[in-house]
Each structure stands twice: as structure tokens, then as C-alpha cells.
């Protein structure tokens, strides 16, 4: 059985068009934004648009679909106005997911901006509890592993575990980004390293929490804490690390998304997806 693989698809021209764009490159999974990810303001998601998306999805060969939240949201923000604005925007993202029938929302935990790690983690937890009090119950929050640039949190597995401990009422999932994890200092570029990293994740969080993978290679070396995506197999992780992941039976049914430039006529998307299928032993 083929693993659910896909890309982050554009919603330009209508959110339902992401489905056809994904199908055009052979996706069996998909990730989207529900609005412009670089702007606070967004028009409400019209019921007609949501219904068109659900129809297109149902009629397609695409299985799991996930939404990534706005890049502007920072639930660790020490500034009160930005923090409140982030909460409102994140709640809106969860409601949009529910309207689309999407079961999971991917989020970067946040940046403490000098307030300190523990203060930032607690700030995130308070914000999440406030959002969850009003959020639809059918959307799971997926905490994304980060590279650790600046004061961004979520680059150590312990930080994600801490958020989960502080908000026990929600069954969080995890979005495991290979580039971010590698840049954060977890070397999964060979078989021994991959096994060590996954054992550590399983001990601290539990591999069953992984609901989604972002499969990106890294332009920068392990431990650089720089978020620089590279096409699969062409960066510092290399094919061996991705082979380990693609052949790990624990994750055979977990959706895997690439987040690299599609290339002219989507040539790079097609190459990356074909390579991942080959590494999995599917072709």
C-alpha cells in the first residue's frame, strides 16, 4: 500500500483548486493555508467555498489534508496586544479547519522574544487553553518541531513535551519536520542516528503522537539552528536518512508533505515525490 505523500498546494483562485493542483502531481496527501499566511486580515471562509473544497476533496484520490496556520501567529508573544491578536487568529484557523472537514492544524509553537524559555512555554499554554475553550472539538492541534532560530520554541523535544504537560486536556499531535529537527541538532542522516533520534522522541513524547511529517532536506549542517529547506536527498540529511524514515513501518500510514519550491511545471515536486516513493521501495 502506498504511503500518503503530497505537497503544500496553493489556494490561489479558490481553496478548492488546491485539490486539483495536488492531483496534478500525483499527491495522495496535501497541506494548505486557508488564507494569506503573511497577513492578519482575512475574509471569512464562505460556506460555498468550504462546500466546494469538501466536494473536490471527496471526489479526488487525495487522502489526508492538513492546514498550516499563519506565519504571523505567536502564542508566546510577550506583548499583550500581539498575544491576544495571535489567539484570535489561531481560533479562526481552527474554525476554518472544522468548516473544511480538515482534522489537524499545524502550528509553530511561538517565539519568546527574550522573555525566556519557561515563560514562553507557559505563555503558549495559557493561550492554547483560552483558544481551546472556544474551539471546535473536531480539530487536533499539531505542534511542529522547529529549527530553533532566534527565540523560537519547539526545537527541543522536551519543549513540545512541556506544552503537552501544561495543557493536558487536549490530545496534541506532532508535525515532525525533518529539516527543522536536523537543524536543531538531532542527526538523523544515517541509520544509527535515525534510530537514536526516534528513540529519544518516543521516550519524551511518543511516536504515536506524530500525525504528519514535513519531509525537507537541510541546506545547513546538523545543529546550525537555521531553517533552510532543500530538496530531498540534495542536502545535509541525504538519501539515507529519508530511506530510514520511509521504510519505518511505524509511520507507513502517516501523511508526508514536502515543502520545497515546486520548480518550473512542478518538475521538482514530481522528482521529490518519485524519489520518496523509490526510497520507500514502492517503485
From TrEMBL:
UniProt cofactor note: Binds 3 Zn(2+) ions.
Enzyme Commission number, as recorded: 3.1.21.2
InterPro entries on file: AP_endonuc_2, AP_endonuc_F2_Zn_BS, Xyl_isomerase-like_sf, Xyl_isomerase-like_TIM-brl
GO BP, one annotated term: base-excision repair
Molecular function terms from GO: deoxyribonuclease IV (phage-T4-induced) activity; DNA binding; DNA-(apurinic or apyrimidinic site) endonuclease activity; phosphoric diester hydrolase activity; zinc ion binding
SUPFAM superfamilies (alphabetical): Xylose isomerase-like (SSF51658)
Binding site for Zn(2+) 2: 144, 177, 214, 259
Enzyme class: hydrolase
Co-factor(s): Zn(2+)
Residues annotated as transmembrane: none
Catalysed reactions, as listed in the record: Endonucleolytic cleavage to 5'-phosphooligonucleotide end-products
Keyword terms: DNA damage, DNA repair, Endonuclease, Hydrolase, Metal-binding, Nuclease, Zinc
Cleavable signal peptide: none
Binding positions (Zn(2+) 3): 180, 227, 229
Residues annotated as domain Xylose isomerase-like TIM barrel: 24-271
Residues where Zn(2+) 1 binds: 68, 108, 144
UniProt similarity note: Belongs to the AP endonuclease 2 family.
HAMAP family according to UniProt: Nfo
Chain's role: Endonuclease IV plays a role in DNA repair. It cleaves phosphodiester bonds at apurinic or apyrimidinic (AP) sites, generating a 3'-hydroxyl group and a 5'-terminal sugar phosphate.
Protein name as catalogued: Probable endonuclease 4
Gene symbol of the encoding locus: nfo
Amino acid at each position: 500500500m502506498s504511503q500518503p505523500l503530497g505537497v503544500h498546494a496553493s489556494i490561489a483562485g479558490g481553496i478548492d483548486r488546491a485539490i486539483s493542483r495536488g492531483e496534478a502531481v500525483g499527491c495522495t496527501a496535501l497541506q494548505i493555508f486557508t488564507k494569506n499566511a503573511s497577513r492578519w486580515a482575512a475574509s471569512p471562509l464562505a460556506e460555498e467555498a468550504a462546500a466546494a473544497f469538501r466536494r473536490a476533496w471527496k471526489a479526488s484520490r487525495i487522502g489526508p489534508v492538513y492546514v498550516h496556520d499563519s506565519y504571523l501567529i505567536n502564542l508566546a508573544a510577550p506583548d499583550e496586544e500581539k498575544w491576544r491578536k495571535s489567539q484570535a487568529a489561531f481560533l479562526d484557523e481552527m474554525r476554518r479547519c472544522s468548516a473544511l472537514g480538515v482534522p489537524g492544524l499545524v502550528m509553530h509553537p511561538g517565539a519568546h522574544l527574550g522573555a525566556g524559555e519557561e515563560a514562553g512555554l507557559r505563555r503558549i499554554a495559557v493561550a492554547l487553553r483560552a483558544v481551546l475553550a472556544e474551539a471546535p472539538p473536531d480539530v487536533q492541534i499539531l505542534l511542529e518541531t522547529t529549527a530553533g532560530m532566534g527565540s523560537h520554541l519547539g526545537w527541543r523535544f522536551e519543549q513540545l513535551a512541556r506544552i503537552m504537560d501544561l495543557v493536558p486536556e487536549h490530545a496534541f499531535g506532532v508535525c515532525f519536520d525533518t529539516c527543522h529537527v536536523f537543524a536543531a541538532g538531532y542527526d538523523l542522516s544515517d541509520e544509527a542516528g535515525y534510530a537514536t533520534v526516534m528513540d529519544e522522541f518516543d521516550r519524551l513524547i511518543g511516536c504515536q503522537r506524530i500525525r504528519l511529517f514535513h519531509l525537507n532536506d537541510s541546506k545547513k549542517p546538523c545543529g546550525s539552528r537555521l531553517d533552510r529547506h532543500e530538496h530531498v536527498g540534495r542536502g545535509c540529511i541525504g538519501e539515507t536518512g529519508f530511506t530510514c524514515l520511509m521504510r519505518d513501518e511505524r509511520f507507513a500510514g502517516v501523511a508526508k508533505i514536502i515543502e520545497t519550491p515546486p520548480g518550473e511545471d512542478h518538475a521538482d515536486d514530481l522528482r521529490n515525490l518519485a524519489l520518496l516513493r523509490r526510497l520507500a521501495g514502492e517503485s
